[in-house]
Design a protein that fits this description.
single chain; 216 residues; Rossmann fold; 6-stranded parallel beta sheet; 52% helix; 14% strand
Length: 216
């Protein structure tokens, strides 16, 4: 079985070593390198081409936000999982727009990090469960619900997008709708492209605007 290649970017050596030990314990992943600042993270991403970069936000020389933007510009296929103490919804949206596929709080359990790595590596977006409600509440205050179907969006695309907004993974949606994972990914990509959405945070915001999240 091919192991997921993980690059760790954090300016605290002790934390990097702890994360390395945790990741290397998993049978399906291993750490290929560690960076102590954003510039090094970009350079190592170019050299090692990992599947996932676990990215701290507050780093010297180049912060995690700028490093994420640069990595996604150069290597769109590399997934970036941001790990931070900040739980502000606006901050989350900023990182999502930079290209991050996942957002995990440092206060979370170690098992959640492993779950997050696997989630983003599989092509799904990940949002720390402890901040999901906060993000949705923040968006709900600033949007006016509308039940109209977006012109150009098929009923199936809308159905997939609603389930993504509720937090279901591509695999869970495929089982729920009895469709292949590849078909779900295609619907998700097509609808996101039509609506100009980048990541799950944007999808949640759009779902709130459309009034889709009143019940499941």
């Amino acid at each position: 079985m091919k192991k997921l290649r993980v690059l760790l970017a954090d300016d605290h050596q002790m934390l990097r070593e702890g994360l390395r030990a945790l990741v290397d314990l998993q049978t399906d992943m291993h750490v290929v390198g560690g960076a102590d600042n954003g510039r090094v993270a970009v350079a190592m991403a170019k050299e090692l081409h990992p599947d996932v970069v676990v990215m701290d936000v507050s780093m010297p020389e180049m912060n995690g936000l700028k490093a994420t933007e640069r990595i996604k510009e150069l290597f769109p296929d590399i997934k970036v999982l941001v790990v931070t103490r900040h739980a502000d919804p606006g901050f989350i949206q900023q990182l999502t727009r930079a290209g991050a596929s996942g957002y995990l709080l440092k206060q979370s359990a170690s098992s959640e990090l492993i779950r997050a790595i696997r989630t983003v590596a599989a092509g799904d977006d990940y949002l720390d469960p402890s901040v999901t409600g906060r993000v949705m509440t923040a968006y709900a205050r600033n949007v006016k619900p509308s039940n109209a179907l977006e012109p150009g969006l098929s009923p199936r695309e809308q159905e997939v997008l609603e389930l993504v907004a509720w937090g279901y993974s591509n695999k869970e949606i495929s089982e729920r709708l009895d469709l292949s994972v590849k078909t779900i990914e295609a619907h998700k990509a097509n609808s996101s492209r039509k609506l100009g959405l980048r990541g799950r945070t944007d999808i949640v915001k759009y779902a709130l605007m459309c009034g889709w999240l009143k019940d499941n």
